Amino acid sequence: MVYEFEGKTEKEAIDKAVAELNLSVDKFDVEILEVQKGGLFKKGMVKIRVHVDMPSGLDENPAPIAENAGDNAKEHSHPHQIVTSDIIEKMQTFLAEIIERMGYVAEIHLLKHEADELTFKISGPDSPHIIGKKGKTLDALQLFANIYLVKLNYGDVRAVVDCENYRRHKEETIIRMAYKVADRVAMTKRSVLLEPMNPYERRLVHTTLSNISSIETKSEGDGLYKQVRVLYKK
After folding, report:
1. Angle 22-121-176 (CA atoms, 0-180°, nearest 5)?
2. What tens digit of pLDDT does each residue of 39-77 get?
3. What's phi and psi for 79, nearest 5 deg?
């Protein structure tokens, strides 16, 4: 999802986002939209856009969030209701139909069912095409699955769509790469800018390197696929 917040400072705006969304800072990406410096008769203001890796988190034209948006969202979702087998079946049918329209053959299985997350496994002879270059086709399928969950009034539940264990292997690759880059940065004292990643992959890098005292990370760029810069911290 995408939200917008304002504050006198960037920190105040981020604190508002943390309080309203009930998420820690490492769970979302922050984009600075506007900065107004304060003056003698004018208060300073910082406006941020928060990208949360959830169903509508890829909306490129977000509308400002009303003060009662959180209450309205709760009225149209089921935060404490168990996802029924009927909903799961609808999700499987939905994904199967999309893949069929793409011209591919695949089977959809429920791999994991948790209170706030459903993991679906796709398998079949066309798996490489379903995964796509750098997993972008798989990311698109996951996005559609999450949008469909919102349509079914289960916006508080996240759908994870995997194929041939691509996401697990990708996670392991990113973690190894993050440690390797951190070692290089610590040795050379020079920052390294990683290739563009989706919000989940960036968060994985931030989390992986968060406990290394001499290293810090920050996201740079616009849109969904931003880059992470790994820096040396004295």
Report:
1. 70
2. 545 566 777 777 665 433 333 333 343 444 344 444 444
3. -60, -25
Tell me what the mean pLDDT of segment 159-168 comes to. Answer: 92
Structure tokens at 167: 């996401």
Do 202 and 170 form a contact (C-beta atoms < 8 A)?
Answer: no
Tokens of 176: 């190894």
Token pair, residue 191, equals: 């920052």
Q: What average pLDDT does the structure give for the chain?
A: 80
What gap in Å lies between CA 214 and CA 211, rounded to an integer? 9
CA–CA distance, 19 with 42 (Å, rounded to integer):
26
Nearest to 225 by CA among 166, 131, 143, 163: 143
Indicate the pairing of strand 117-123 with strand 158-163.
Answer: parallel
